[in-house]
Amino acid sequence: MTPRPHTPRTIRVELADRAYPVRIGNTLLADLAAALTETFGTLPRAAFVVSDANVQGHAALAMQALTSAGCRVESATITATEPQKSLDALSRVLTEMGKARLERTDPVIAVGGGITGDLAGFAAATYRRGVPIVQCPTTLLSMVDASVGGKTGVNLEVEGSLQKNMVGAFHQPALVLADIDTLATLTDRQFRAGLAECIKHGLLGGCTGDATHREWITTNLDAILARQPETLLELIARSVAFKAAIVAGDERELADSGPSRALLNLGHTFAHAIETIPSLSPTADPADAPLLHGEAVALGLIAAATTSAHLGMVPTNLIDNIRSLVTRCGLPTAVADLPTGDTLLSHMGADKKTVGGVLRLILLLPGFRAELCESPDHRAIGAGWDAIRAGRYSA
Ligand code: GLY
User: Fold this and answer.
1) Is 58 a catalytic residue?
2) Contact 137, 120 (CB under 8 A)
3) Per-residue DSSP letters for 94-127?
4) Which residues pair with 11 in a beta bridge?
5) Catalytic residue at 234?
6) Which member of 251, 265, 347, 360 is catalytic?
7) Strand duo 108-112 + 133-137: pairing
8) Which of the four pLDDT bands, split at 50, 70 and 90, describes residue 258?
């Protein structure tokens, strides 16, 4: 049965001549041809759909919508895992695009989660020096984060270790279509992992003038976890509005102060360090992963809040508030197998945000704001790690 359409929301990412809408609603994939016609002024002659094995039903719906409207559709399917988000996979997709004789104005349509969107976006950025990309995110995490803002790329394997998103380009989409019907096929674990980015946006809301977002999440969490459609639309619209404001102000992450895009790394330097620990790294099959990215981000948020509190930047009760929200979301608040503080610091130093060997960490301030701190005190960072060591915390 076709789901009942809900009133869609549209948030614009204001980037002068590269501004674009993020449309959030349901039944959007079935209406893809009309959305492309509105975006490009005419239905594209051809389109290339990149999807992954987890979302074949959603990809088929998008392709059917386009072919029945008269658009020639070719496609490629990738394996959406961190090890497979590779130059080899990119090369295979580009080769398929070449075989499909895609022209400069023919869009790539990414249907999938963040890995698929990043890889397809990078393929679109480089094929013929750039063709349009339309992002159709199918996970909560990619709807509120990865699909908006134009970061695209693949991982690089260097001497046996995976360097995340080390090769890429900024390539803003022409359109983002977040169809919440696709969230129905997510496992609870995947859905909850996406909430970590929403909590992060809530903790930073004061930077763009919306200090109410975290409170809104707390109040509406039962309806969010029940995936109540109107509540999901509101959640995603709020998070996207926050991200759109940040991206519009600092597209290329060059600002060191004010509402800079670097603030979106809150919790991520800890999360990336966790993800480099072999026993906690992303696995080929995400269903077996010891930690999903969003779960590592949830831990990173607690660690960053603890570091901030240790430095006297925020009151300590903020740590408990975050921990309690993370717990209600069903996300982890502690992890086993963390190595010593020194080893973790060296993992943090390997983060690609490190500049000139100086560790740069986003730390919290009162009023749902944050700032970039260079070389924070190592004891404060150690306190952050201790806060998420399994077995260390007792309420
Ligand atoms: N995901 C962080 C950013 O888009 O900048």
Assistant:
1) no
2) no
3) HHHHHHTT--TTPPEEEEESHHHHHHHHHHHHHG
4) 22
5) no
6) 265
7) parallel
8) confident
- Ligand 1 within 6 A of CB of 145: yes
Q: Is any atom of ligand 1 closer than 6 Å to the C-beta of 264?
A: yes
Q: Which two tokens mark 114?
A: 């963040």
pLDDT tens for 118-147 read 999 999 999 999 999 999 999 999 999 999
Instruction: Spell out the residues 6+ positions from residue 155 whose beta carbon is closer than 8 angstroms to its own.
Output: 82, 83, 85, 86, 162, 163, 164, 165, 166, 167
Residue 283: per-residue pLDDT: 66
Residue 213 is a catalytic residue: no
Distance 154 CA to ligand 1 centre (A): 14
Catalytic residue among 9, 82, 251, 253: 253
Distance in angstroms between the alpha carbons of the first and the last residue of the chain: 47
Q: pLDDT tens, 336-345? A: 989 888 888 8
- Ligand 1: residue whose CA is nearest its atom 2: 264
Evaluate if residue 326 carries a pLDDT over 50.
yes
Mean pLDDT of the chain, nearest integer: 93
What six digits make up the tokens of 151?
Answer: 């970061």
Give the separation between CA 266 and CA 296, rounded to whole angstroms.
Answer: 12
Q: Of residues 9, 201, 293, 323, which has the active-site annotation?
A: 293
Quickly count: other Cβ atoms within 10 Å of residue 116's Cβ.
31
The closest-lying atom of ligand 1 relative to the alpha carbon of residue 262 is: 5
pTM of the model: 0.94
